Amino acid sequence: MNIRIGHSPDPDDAFLFYALTNGKLQIPGITISHLLEGIEQLNERAMEGELEMTAVSLAAYPYCASRYILLPTGSSVGDGYGPILVAKKSMDLKELARMRVAVPGRLTTAALLLQLAVGKVSQQVMPFDQILPAVQEGKVDAGILIHEGQLTYLDTDLKKVLDLGEWWKSRTGLPVPLGVNVIRRDLGPDLIRQLADGFKRSLDYAFAHREEALAYAQNYSRGLDLPRTDQFVGMYVNRWSVECRPEAAAAMQRLLDWAAQEGLIPRRVPIEFVES
Predict the structure, then answer these.
(1) Looking at the annotation, which residues are catalytic?
(2) Which domains are present in the chain?
(3) SS3 for the chain, per residue?
(4) What is the pTM for the complete model shown?
(5) Residue segments in the chain with a per-residue pLDDT below the cut of 50
């Protein structure tokens, strides 16, 4: 049986899926096809139930929860850090109401956090790896950086306006949940558990063989050297990636509940995980 897995072409996802991608382990009776796309494209596919298993933004989960259930492994969670809003000059957050802000997708958690932190702003969606140069070139007034942009902007003259993970921590005392992995409910409990176990073993392998997994992850680092690839992977492949409950799960529910109260998602959605 072939299972299609979608994930982003970035270092942390590459690290997570290293063993499954490179034949370091197998799941009996299963062949796996990997689809590498930007997170907004994966969010859109999940809304249609297209892939059997995929990474999605937590902010997109309410739109696909009827089709998918959360995996307890592989979540991207930052503790006091997260997507970074940058601009060419320092500014007050109130100024953003008059400005164009680039976001990496309307269904991304970064865009949702921006709305919770700042309120209504004029959002311009663009691929995540085009946001930093767009801000530098003045095509937009500010932009939210995800993935390696959270580190590489330090090599530019751009100014940090707001770290959304830091803001979230100051408001809630919780780590900020950003990305999750989901699996389609119609696969049935036996296959779901088999795939969840295979994904967990892939992460365990990467931790046990960190040097070779990092070497593979660097292929997707878009300019990071090995030490900074290691730094970035360590930021988002952490203890909550191994098992996101209970603290990160509470943060996920808090974020979605807040978004529902503000009318930023259609309805309140309870967090539901594959049972171990």
Answers:
(1) 147
(2) 2-76+176-261 (3.40.190.10), 84-172 (3.40.190.10)
(3) CEEEEEECCCHHHHHHCHHHHCCCCCCCCCEEEEEECCHHHHHHHHHCCCCCEEEEEHHHHHHHCCCEEECCCCCEEECCCCCEEEECCCCCHHHHHHCEEEECCCCCHHHHHHHHHHCCCEEEECCHHHHHHHHHCCCCCEEEECCCHHHHHHHCCCEEEEEHHHHHHHHHCCCEEEEEEEEEHHHCHHHHHHHHHHHHHHHHHHHHCHHHHHHHHHHHCCCCCHHHHHHHHHHHCCHHHHCCCCHHHHHHHHHHHHHHHCCCCCCCCCCCECCC
(4) 0.95
(5) none
